[in-house]
Amino acid sequence: MKVKVKVSKYLTPEQRSKFYQKKNSRLAGRLIKLLKAILS
Fold first, then answer.
1. What single-letter DSSP state applies at residue 40?
2. 8 within 8 A of 16, measured Cβ to Cβ
3. Which domain of life is it from (predicted)?
4. Are 11 and 19 in contact (CB under 8 A)?
């Protein structure tokens, strides 16, 4: 986590938002997989 926070300091706001969008979509994908596994 600490490394990622440092990295985000050097990114422009645009790059940062893209970076976090990627992270969030990955997390969302995991959550959806978990939900599907539970429901099926």
1. -
2. yes
3. Bacteria
4. yes
